[in-house]
Design brief:
By secondary structure, the protein is an alpha+beta fold. The chain has five helices and four strands; from the N terminus they run E-H-E-H-E-E-H-H-H. The protein is globular and about 50 Å long.
Length: about 160
């Protein structure tokens, strides 16, 4: 019996934020199985994924978001759920999920609120290299498919 491939988990990030782009590189380096795909929140695939999951409020660019198993997670919960699937010792951080989200998110929001000042900002969203392009969401990730009839085309 052949096992079906795991559906991708989508990490949505602020494409002009240097800290966020470094986080994407960090995840890619620790995700050799390619479990995660990425999209800048500002990109068409990112906007379509947010709309598809009724999470357009996250388009404010102040949060990292994770789409996993049809559910969307943001802020510290997204970061911890991502760490849970990385190589090395990073999954051990997942125990922090027991800390109430408002406490975790207060620290997350403080860092997010200062990220441009501390880490800088790019003029344009990241463009993946040819080698990494398969790790970034594209049209195939947002187009309707026969196996997903509820999916709507991003243009309406």
């Amino acid at each position: 019996m052949q096992t079906l491939p795991e559906p991708p988990r989508y990490v949505l990030f602020d494409g002009v934020c240097n800290l966020c782009n470094s986080a994407v590189n960090f995840i890619i380096d620790r995700d050799p199985k390619g479990r995660f795909k990425f999209a800048a929140i500002q990109s068409a695939p990112g906007q379509s994924l947010l709309a598809r999951h009724n999470a357009t409020v996250l388009a404010s660019l102040k949060t990292l978001a994770l789409i996993d198993g049809g559910k969307i997670y943001s802020r510290s919960t997204a970061a911890l759920r991502i760490a849970r699937h990385l190589g090395g010792l990073w999954p051990t951080l997942y125990w922090m999920i027991i800390v109430p989200a408002p406490i975790r998110d207060a620290l997350y929001d403080w860092i997010a609120g200062n990220r441009y000042r501390w880490f800088g900002k790019r003029d344009h969203c990241r463009i993946p290299t040819a080698q990494l392009s398969s790790r970034f969401a594209g049209a195939e990730d947002v187009e309707p498919t026969e196996s997903d009839p509820d999916r709507t085309h991003p243009d309406g």
